[in-house]
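Protocol step 4 of 5: obtain the predicted structure for the target chain.
Materials: sequence only (see below). No template structures provided, no constraints applied. The aim of this step is simply to have a reference model before the mutagenesis design in step 5. Sequence pasted as it appears in the construct record:
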Amino acid sequence: MSKAKRYKGLKFNYRVKGQNKVFMDKYLTIEDFLKTQFPKNNNPVSPSYDTEIFNINWNSHEVSINKDAKTLSDLIEILSGECFISSTDIRLTKSTLERKSVHYIEDVRETVKDVLFEKLKKDAKVKLDGDIIKGNSQRYQLFFTKGTKCVCCGIEGKYFAKEKKIKDKSYHLNLYGIDNSGKEVLITKDHIIPKSKGGKDELENYQTMCVRCNERKGNKTE
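Step 4 output (structure tokens):
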């Protein structure tokens, strides 16, 4: 079996309390993962349901749910519920999100402008229509410095929706455009040089891209 085939499927990293080593868990299929009982065979380095996980990959691609699945339980809940799964991505569907309100782009810009590049989390919180949001999100930094138009297909973000996962307490803003058929299209933050190829989490390495083009791009550099 080739090295490429060994890394097909679902994989993620995790740490075990009391150890500095980073571990990796992987499964050929999502079904295999969901059938697994944790911790596995009382293995002391096996993840448990409350273990924090990171670097979730599907078929060697970093997936959108990295920002949503912080623990093993989160990942199980997402994959057991309604989510979109393609050959290169796993992301939440709108049915898993609770939408509270919609906001003009300029209104959001005005709200976050003073904390957009604030480094301290506690000082970056702002109130938007009665709810506290994180005003220094790297997505906002990208959209308000490089624009809201997809660099590939040209679809442009038209408004922010204040949304949250059903179980979450706080809201965040998602940017949406409208395609020619009138359907909403999520506008995303893409890594120009993918993280899997050494790309950094910094503004210079981000570009605005709709979710459809982002999925097609995968971990390619163009």
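Step 4 remarks: Confidence is low (pLDDT under 50) at residues 1-5. The radius of gyration is 18 Å.
Proceed to step 5.
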